[in-house]
Amino acid sequence: MLDETGPRGDIPRNGLNWRKETGDGTIASQTDAGDAKILRLQITHVLGIGGGAWTGPKATTVSADLIENGKVARHAKINRWSVGGVWGAFKGSCSILDRTAIVISKDLGRWVRDPSYQIKEEAPPNEASAPTAQTDAASSATAE
Questions:
Q1: Where are the domains of the chain?
Q2: Cβ(100)–Cβ(118) below 8 Å
Q3: What is the pTM of this model?
Q4: Which residue intervals are annotated with compositional bias (Low complexity) in the record (predicted)?
């Protein structure tokens, strides 16, 4: 069933919501799913210091298993970073993390449909790199 509104009646940022007509689409982790395909997700890491873009980039890492006939057919680890985009300085941490979740969901959607699709590892943005310390005497002498 296609539902064009979010849980509060608003249109979600990522477009349309898909709902199953026969339940919420979740199953217990130990339930036998028979011959159904299952996408098992585990959020393994979230980097989301409060303060929005002013406190640096945000990241979400998810481990995904595609289970077919009770066995893991494929596995992927997805890590996505965001600094908030063009208007990042005006966004909160939750909004920036929402951007990472949307990109992960798009990657996973394609990964489930296309077995040849490889999810590429995403490097941290330049803003996540720590400044390099000056360690030798010559560098510190020229800095003075």
A1: 35-126
A2: no
A3: 0.66
A4: 128-144
